[in-house]
Amino acid sequence: MEIVLCVIIGYIFGSISFSYLFTYLLTGKDIREIGAGNPGAANVARTVGKQWGVLVWIGDTVKGVIPMVLARDLGIHNIIMLTIIGISAILGHCYSLLLQFKGGKGAATSGGVVLFLMPILFPLVIFLWFLAQKINPRSPKVIILSVSFYFLCMFFAYGLRVNMGVFLQVSASSLLLIISGVLINPAFIKEMGKKKI
Predict the structure, then answer these.
(1) What SS3 state is found at 17?
(2) pLDDT in tens, 35-86
(3) Are 174 and 154 in contact (CB under 8 A)?
(4) How many structural domains comprise the chain?
(5) Nearest to 107 by CA among 33, 177, 46, 194
(6) Cα 10 to Cα 13, 59, 65, 105, 113, distances in angstroms
(7) Cβ proximity of 19 and 99 under 8 Å
(8) Residue 128's domain spans which residues?
(9) Which of 42, 39, 92 is nearest to 64 (CA)?
């Protein structure tokens, strides 16, 4: 029952669109109707101001953390269950209740889940994300190399530094995050729809 409650809370927290709120309060405009039209931190940084984009990014990251903190306080410590709760926040970001079930790509909120579950790897995730954005975020080679390097670093950070049991748990959590992130990402779904046509 606690897990179901935390999943619902996660989705509600994820649905809070800081990009929409900040943009509307500062400019009176709908973030979905300016710039790239994406209700995310990057679009806010480009159209409203870099400092506001950073604040939106922080907010989107924190809303991925809070549901898992609440879950842990309720006694949920299983990493897979916590990951699912984190994914519910990502789902809320991508399909927000406040934006008629539309939203951003969920990158910052996914980062929040990593920050909570695997804090040692959080700086690496930020670095790899920015690197991929600069090179080519749609390139299969860039994605495969980034993910491979991430898992290699995870092995050193958790497999060798802690133990293999923890490494297997965080590996399963990461795979779940990656797979669900791809499947619920509106941009990915839209692109796949175009290919079918």
Answers:
(1) coil
(2) 988 888 989 999 999 999 999 999 999 999 999 999 999 999 999 999 999 9
(3) yes
(4) 1
(5) 177
(6) 5, 14, 9, 16, 11
(7) no
(8) 2-196
(9) 92
